[in-house]
Amino acid sequence: MDTRTPHPSLPAKPRAFGFFVDGAWVKTGGRDTLDRISPAHDIPVTTIALCTKADVDHAVKVAREAFEDRRWSGQAAADRAAVLLRAAQGIRARVDELALLETLETGKPISQSRGEVEGAAGIYEYAAGAARMLHGETFNNLGDKMLGLVTREPIGVVGLITPWNFPFFILAERVPFILAAGCTIVCKPSEFTSSTTLLMAEILAEAGLPAGVFNVVTGLGAEVGQAITEHPDIDMASFTGSTATGRRAVQASAGNFKKLGLELGGKNPQIVFADADLEDAADGVIFSMCFNAGQCCVGGSRLVVERSIAGTFEKLVTAKLAKVRVGDPLNPDTQVGAMVTPEHNAKVLGYIENGRKAGARLVAGGGKAGSPAGNFVQPTLFADVTTDMAIAREEIFGPVLGIIPFETEEEAIAIANNVDYGLAASIWTKNLDKAVNVMRRVRAGRTWINCTITGGPEMPIGGFKQSGWGRETGIYGVEEYTQIKSCHIELGQRAPWIS
Ligand code: NDP
User: Fold this and answer.
1) Does 471 lie in the same domain as 442?
2) Are 349 and 48 in contact (CB under 8 A)?
3) For the chain, percent of residues with pLDDT exceeding 70
4) Of 138, 288, 301, 480, which residue has the fewest beta carbons closer than 10 angstroms?
């Protein structure tokens, strides 16, 4: 018997959303609107309001008031944790609805969307515990007349700008941690994928989050996003997206020296040694390049492989790649769905053309995958890639992988580090000494040994070099959203300065 979830169907008309400020939905009113076209099906699926700078100003005012009157930060961590736990239940109660919207807006496979929504619920549960773990320090070593306290305080109002590749999951890697720290939030999701962030605001309100603590303004990055990064009354901005926009956020934030958290691009190596379990490594390498159609900041996009097995491994990867199921993301069997927009699809195809022209040898894929909407790219493998080629240096953000051979461990490390990015790296070998040495010397914030793109909210995520600043998730992810205050307490009589 087939027990899989039935194939969900396309909506008859787009679902219209207002936006969410001060604990309630705000109607679109006279604002312009934007239809989101499903990249896999070429029909409008959602409609959002194009908020203005004035809407951002209002949301920041609301979030500032909610922060200053301590309606959230003043609660015991146990009470804040209870809200986050109820939010996790609220997510679980709406998995089908959230997963379908996620797939319609992003083009990602429905089975993957369900996994991400369920995974997000687990992150809220983890963060509930983290809220209660947060603590400062005491210095009891300052002599009998002095006690030192170091306290952690919420940083304040956080502007949160999220991307389109994992709209609900990346939100879950930020929001409950920011809330665990006691901050209030003004969030702008990507214009392409706003609906599940808006529903999360409703879920949090129903879970008992006080009004004004989590506010969502939708619209365009150039207007709404820019207004957030520039805003003089926002204390910290957390941005996830391209390195180019991240650089703009750094400039914009200088106005009030707001703290910035940046999770930016990657050009992540999959380093495969001859002594690896090659079947397992090939499977992991393909998962890493194809997951989310390659639109994944930690996805593998450089296959750095020991020369003695390069030919064998190329054949193994090619054979397995042929079995990857690309197609309609509403089909529960699909593994690779659509690219997010026609423009992004064209950008990825442009990189494939660039690789061909630069002299790389096309081994598999290399073009559009058949579909009515046309926004699908075949998983593509290049061999004979050199480190100076654009396909070896720049973030393509598609299912495209280039093979770069190496002779020695030193050379593998040098190739891995020879890019501007430093987000993630995977190492495949059965030799533990070698694995740990390479892990230590690769300049990347997230590393995997004999696995890839896995892990839970306990572990931090973030980049070295131009992949960003700061860390998300884990207890580190809560601490990012706090300020440290020190306090000296004098005991007994203070020695007078004036005699
Ligand atoms: P962007 O960096 O432009 O988008 C990320 C977020 O930033 C979106 O919410 C976007 O809003 C917003 N934004 C856009 N302009 C501004 C601005 N001036 N100030 C503040 N926020 C802004 O990425 P793109 O969508 O253009 O994708 C381009 C490339 O970025 C991809 O090809 C990929 O290489 C990389 N990328 C990396 C991601 C990662 O996870 N590291 C995620 C997404 C993209 P809006 O959508 O409304 O424009």
Assistant:
1) no
2) no
3) 98
4) 138
- Residue 493 CB contacts under 8 Å (≥ 6 apart), including other chains: none
Q: What number does the ligand 1 atom closest to the CA of 266 have?
A: 41
* Any ligand 1 atom below 6 A from CB of 220: yes
* Amino acid type, 128: A
Pocket lining: 222 vs ligand 1, CB cutoff 6 Å: yes
Q: Is the CB of 248 under 6 A from ligand 1?
A: yes
* Cα-Cα-Cα-Cα dihedral sign, residues 115, 121, 124, 125: negative
The answer to whether residue 144 sits within a structural domain is yes
What is the phi-psi region of residue 292: left when phi exceeds 0, alpha when psi lies from -120 to 50, beta otherwise?
A: left
- Domain around 417: 268-449
Q: Is 250 exposed, middle or buried (0-12, 13-18, 19+ CB in 10 A)?
A: middle
CATH of the domain at 189: 3.40.605.10
Atom of ligand 1 nearest to the CA of 245: 2
Closest-lying ligand 1 atom to the alpha carbon of residue 191: 47
Site to probe by mutation for ligand 1, drawn from 239, 245, 343 as the one with most ligand atoms within 8 Å of Cβ, is: 245
Q: Within this chain, do residues 439 and 479 fall inside the same structural domain, yes or no?
A: no
Q: Tokens standing for 93?
A: 């109660």
Ligand 1 mean position, distance from CA 247 (Å): 11
Q: Does the pLDDT at position 499 exceed 90?
A: no
Which band of pLDDT confidence, cut at 50, 70 and 90, is reported for residue 187? Answer: very high
**Within a domain: 5:** no
Residue 369: pLDDT band (50, 70, 90) is confident
Distance CA 333, CA 327 (A): 9
| Number of separate domains in the chain | 2
| Percent of the chain clearing pLDDT 90 (strictly above) | 97
Structural domain includes residue 347:
yes
Residue 455 placed within a domain: no
Looking at the structure, do residues 273 and 252 belong to the same domain, yes or no? no
pLDDT at 6 over 80: no
Q: What is the pLDDT of residue 196?
A: 98
Question: Cα(49) to centroid of ligand 1, in Å?
Answer: 18
Residue 28 has pLDDT above 90, yes or no: yes
C-alpha 102/C-alpha 96 separation (Å) is: 10
Whether residue 140 sits in one domain with residue 22: yes
Instruction: Give 113-147 pLDDT, tens digit per residue.
Output: 999 999 999 999 999 999 999 999 999 999 999 99
What's the 422 CA to ligand 1 centre distance in angstroms?
Answer: 18
pLDDT at 404: 98
Q: Tell whether 111 and 211 lie within a shared domain.
A: yes
Q: Which residues are catalytic?
A: 188, 263, 297, 395
